[in-house]
Amino acid sequence: MPPPLPRRPVWGESAEPTPPPPVAVGPPEHQTPVDPWAGVDTGGWDLPSAELPTLPPTISYPTPPDTRQWSGPPASPAGPHPVPPPAAPSAPRAIGPMVPARPMSPPAPLAPPKVPKQRRGRRSTAPPTPPPGWQAPKGYVPVPVRRRRRWPWLLLLTLACCCGCPAYYGFPISAQYPARATVPVQVDDLSLRQDSRSTETAKKLEGEVRKEHWLAEDTFAGVYATTSGKRVTVFGGTGFRLSPESDAEAEISRLTERYALDAPESVDTGVRGRHERCAVGSADGSAVVVCTSVDHGSIATGVFTRLSVADSAELLGTLRAQIVQPERG
User: In this structure, what CATH number is given to the domain that contains residue 249?
Assistant: First the structure.
C-alpha cells in the first residue's frame, strides 16, 4: 500500500514545522540522581602491569645532621629542668614509586666585596686595623701619623719656575747695563798715543761706531802702543743689547772686508752674557788680529799687531775692564 501524500498547506499557514511544546521540568532537588558508574564492575583497581618494567627500590632521604642549640648562660640549680633536644626526624615514608634523590651540591662561595678603585699615587686614608686578639703593651699610647703634605714642594717648584728663570736670565743684564766708558791714558804696558794722527784716527773710528750703532748711548776710541813697537787700536760704545751673541757676529762680519779677515772663531770669556769673536787678517801689509767682545751693556773691538789670537783676546779683556765700567745701584 503506497504511503499517503503530504498534506498541502492551507492558505496563510507557515511552511516551517511547528516545534513541539516544551516539557515542563521540575527543580533539580526534586529530580532523581543518576549514578554514572551504575552497572560497571569496580571490584579491583590493582591490575598487574605486564608491559612496564619493575621500578628500582625507593631510596629514602638522607638524615640531616643534628643542629646545635644556642649555648646560652647556664641555668641555675633551682631552675627548671633543661628541655631535651628534639629527636632527629625519621625518614619519610615512601609512598609509591620515587625518583632516586640527587646529592646536594655545596653552596656557591660568596663573591669578595668590591674594593673602590683608588687613583694612582694616592693611598687609602683608612688606618690599618690590628689583627684579632691583639692587645697593646702596657704604657703604649697611640700617636696619630701625620700625612705628608706635597703642596710645599709644588709651591717651591712654582716659585723656582716663576722667579728662578727670570733671575737667571735677568742677572747678567742688571750686572752689565747701564755702563759708562772712559779711555784711560795707561793700561798695563800700553800708553795712549795723543799725537794728531792718532787723535784723528780715534775720532774717525768713534764716528763710525756712532753711525753703525745708532742706539749707542756713549762711544769711545783710542790708539795705544808699547815701547817694543806693538800697536793696539780699540773702539766701541755703550748701550743696551738684547742679543750680544748676534751683535758680536754682526760686528766681525762688518769688519771682514776692511781687514780681509779669515773665518772667525769663538773665544770663551768666562762671563755669562758676554760673547767674543776673533779672526786673523791684515792691515797696511801687516798681519793683524781683530777681536770683538759684546755683552748686554757694551761692545768693544780691538785691532792687534804682532800678537797671537789668544794673547789678543786676553788683552782685549784687560782693555775693556779699564775702559767700560758698569753703573751698579
Answer: 3.40.1000
Element (H, E) at 316: helix 309-323
Do 220 and 181 touch, CB atoms closer than 8 A? yes
What is the chain's mean pLDDT, rounded?
Answer: 77
Q: For 196, phi and psi rounded to 5 degrees?
A: -65, -40
Name the CA radius of gyration of the chain, rounded: 62
Closest residue by Cα to residue 182 from 223, 221, 135: 221
Task: Return contacts of 259-263, CB within 8 angstroms, 24+ apart.
Answer: 259/283, 259/288, 259/290, 259/303, 261/290
> Which of 281, 288, 293, 280 is CA-nearest to residue 233?
288
166-187 tens-digit pLDDT: 555 556 788 888 899 999 999 9
Does 222 reside within a domain?
A: yes
Dmax over CA atoms of the chain, in Å, equals 189
Q: Residue 131 falls within a domain, yes or no?
A: no
Domains of the chain: total: 1
For 192, the domain range is 179-326
Beta strands in 122-274 (DSSP E): 179-181, 186-187, 190-192, 218-225, 231-238, 265-267
